[in-house]
């Protein structure tokens, strides 16, 4: 059983460890950080600077998923899409690789969706998955997201997905 909580500074080291592989780092959104490998301090600096809310397009809510042993096992960002408070974007979704296959990714997304729809009152949640990332794509579909379109980007094409209330 997982639960969500807002990101805390103590989570940065765990998240940095998950994105030590360069492909994972880039798929996670590493291009926005500008350097590899990323350090916990860089993550914390960016997250704490923006952890004040989603009222501005550049602000976001970083969240972590906690397992029954209080370990951080997953992470994602919630951000209002283009300042529209009815559409929320999930991004930078990453899980601890040692727990893959246990359904934690799907459970984390479902908890995030419940929060988005019931507490924040959004009408739609979107996210993107890189073509060829079949494990994440399957997880997103299990959580209820449906494919919308393929956007050609470098270095990977992105499958845009969404779910509505």
Written overview of the protein:
It is a single chain. The chain is α+β, with helices and mostly antiparallel strands and 165 residues long. The chain has one domain (3-164): Gcn5-related N-acetyltransferase (GNAT) (Aminopeptidase). The chain contains 5 helices and 7 strands. It has a 7-stranded mixed sheet with strand order 1-2-3-4-5-7-6, with helices on both faces. Strand 4 (84-95), helix 4 and strand 5 form a beta-alpha-beta unit. Helix 1 crosses helix 3 (40-50). The radius of gyration is 15 Å and the shape is globular. The model is unreliable at 53-57 (pLDDT under 50).
Features:
Aminopeptidase; alpha+beta; about 160 residues; about 30% helix; seven-stranded mixed sheet; 5 helices
């Amino acid at each position: 059983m997982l639960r969500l909580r807002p990101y805390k500074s103590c989570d940065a080291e765990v998240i940095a460890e998950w994105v030590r592989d360069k492909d994972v780092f880039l798929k996670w959104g590493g291009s926005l950080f500008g350097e590899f490998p990323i350090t916990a301090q860089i993550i914390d600096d960016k997250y704490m600077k923006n952890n004040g809310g989603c009222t501005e397009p550049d602000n976001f809510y970083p969240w972590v998923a906690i397992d029954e042993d209080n370990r951080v096992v997953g992470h994602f960002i919630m951000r209002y899409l283009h300042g529209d408070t009815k559409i929320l974007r999930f991004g930078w979704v990453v899980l601890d690789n040692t727990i893959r296959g246990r359904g934690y990714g799907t459970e984390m997304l479902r908890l995030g969706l419940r929060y988005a729809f019931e507490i924040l009152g959004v009408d739609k949640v979107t996210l993107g998955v890189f073509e060829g990332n079949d494990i994440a794509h399957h997880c997103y579909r299990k959580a209820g997201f449906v494919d919308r379109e393929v956007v050609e980007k470098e270095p990977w094409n992105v499958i845009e997905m969404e779910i509505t209330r």
